[in-house]
UniProtKB/TrEMBL annotation:
Positions bound to S-adenosyl-L-methionine: 47, 78, 99, 140
Reaction equations catalysed: a 3-demethylubiquinol + S-adenosyl-L-methionine = a ubiquinol + S-adenosyl-L-homocysteine + H(+); a 3-(all-trans-polyprenyl)benzene-1,2-diol + S-adenosyl-L-methionine = a 2-methoxy-6-(all-trans-polyprenyl)phenol + S-adenosyl-L-homocysteine + H(+)
Keywords attached to this entry: Methyltransferase, S-adenosyl-L-methionine, Transferase, Ubiquinone biosynthesis
A Pfam short name: Methyltransf_23
Name of the protein: Ubiquinone biosynthesis O-methyltransferase
One Gene Ontology biological process: methylation
Lineage, top ranks: Bacteria, Pseudomonadati, Pseudomonadota, Alphaproteobacteria, Sphingomonadales
Function of the molecule: O-methyltransferase that catalyzes the 2 O-methylation steps in the ubiquinone biosynthetic pathway.
Family listed: Belongs to the methyltransferase superfamily. UbiG/COQ3 family.
Length: 249
């Protein structure tokens, strides 16, 4: 688990207090598509495209269904103000969201209520909440922010039901990501300063090993990249960001 002597880490938890404070300060603006979370708003449809295909393949569902997750439970860890939880609910899932920042959870509850969505939200460390297993476990752009990556992945795996599906996305640790996702993105105001710490990014091979240690098999990663013609889109180019599935071995 995390080093209790570290000043920015809550003892015996994967949450970094400074990271929670950073994202909690953005809570009021989270649902503004032109605000500080604008990049997440542009990224979310790409992640949902991957997730929908993964769900259909994993459970052999009807690709024409508008509620492919009906009857399924879903857990989104590091949910922020619910940007992924709400589409998951509209896809039919019984959704639970967990986040390190109380401010984010308050914003998520308000926004879900405004949309008439019944989503359960919790603030705190996943391992301490006493939640059961879920058919679908997601955690998007989160693992790079946690204090203890092996412990975090183990927590995710512990909440995956038998026969369940996990979907994760995260920046890759490459020269390109250092220049573009940290340097250029923050300098140009595409993301708030201090959002990314390049040394905490992990490569697909490192993530594959973390998942294997937790008893999970990682699928082939898909890149998320940008071009003037397509904007953000799924790609074979893993240099900046990637998204993967995992399932029990």
């Amino acid at each position: 688990m995390a080093d209790a002597s570290a000043p920015d880490t809550l003892a015996n938890e994967t949450i970094r207090a400074d990271e929670a404070a950073h994202f909690g300060a953005l809570a009021a603006d989270w649902w503004n598509p032109a605000g500080s979370s604008a990049m997440l708003h542009r990224l979310n449809p790409v992640r949902l495209t991957f997730l929908r295909e993964a769900v259909d393949l994993h459970w052999g569902g009807d690709v024409r269904s508008i509620r492919p997750l009906a009857g399924k439970t879903a857990l989104d860890v590091g949910c922020g103000a619910g940007l992924l939880c709400e589409p998951l609910a509209r896809l039919g899932a019984n959704v639970t969201g967990v986040d390190a920042a109380a401010e984010n959870i308050a914003a998520a509850v308000r926004h879900a209520a405004g949309g008439g969505l019944a989503i359960t939200y919790h603030h705190g460390e996943l391992a301490s909440l006493g939640l059961g297993p879920f058919d679908l476990v997601t955690s998007m752009e989160v693992i790079e922010h946690v204090a203890d990556k092996p412990a975090f992945v183990a927590q995710l795996a512990a909440h995956l039901a038998d026969g369940g599906l996990m979907v994760l996305s995260t920046p890759n640790r490459t020269t390109a990501s250092r220049l573009l996702l940290v340097g250029a993105a923050e300098a140009l105001g595409a993301v708030p300063k201090g959002t990314h710490h390049w040394g905490d990014f992990i490569t697909p091979d490192e993530l594959r090993d973390l998942l294997a240690d937790a008893g999970l098999i990682m699928g082939e990663p898909r890149g998320i990249t940008w071009s003037p013609a397509k904007g953000l889109h799924l790609s074979d180019d893993l240099a900046l960001n990637y998204i993967v599935t995992a399932r029990a071995g």
